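Hi X.,

You mentioned you wanted examples for the new student's onboarding notes, showing what a folding record looks like when two proteins sit in one file. Here is a clean example. The first protein comes first, with its sequence line followed by its structure tokens.
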Amino acid sequence: MVPNREWMYTMRVHKFQYYVKQFLDYAFNNATVVKYRTLRNGLVVSEIRCPCIDCKNRTYKSRQMVEFDIYQNRFMPNYYQWSAHGELYPTQDMGQCSTAGPSQDVGQEDSVDAGVYTGYHEMFTESMH
């Protein structure tokens, strides 16, 4: 479940600044989303996608520029799941099905399904040889 991220859109100064720093720490500590760029002077700069309204995660920027853009322009709408910054979508445990399917009906055989399976199996086996 995604944590409450209402702070991203309420703009209460103290709280907002605290959580923007938390967001930036999270993103820049996730090696899978950080891009490195070498400047003309040889300095290597780490960058992430900027989630502001204008950039919409399309542009890579340094930490300072992302922070500036967020303060200046705010976060893009509905960016509660930080997918471009390494946060995975939650998986749901589907559990077990409570209704019996054809393979669960004891003593009954569905010859049509068996024929389709056999035909598919034969076709697959022949294509492998």
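Then the second protein repeats the pattern, sequence line and then tokens:
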Amino acid sequence: METAKNPNPLCVNVFQGGGPVPSKEAVTEKWAEMIALLESSQAEASNSLGR
């Protein structure tokens, strides 16, 4: 996992299981954010491939 691009302590805590456990809402929000980022980067990739 690359932590350099997105040095987010919440992210690191969730994935490494370290530190205080964030609330379920915070985790859900972060996952939604990450999924949105993934989807937008995938869309950009397919757009550049389609050209």
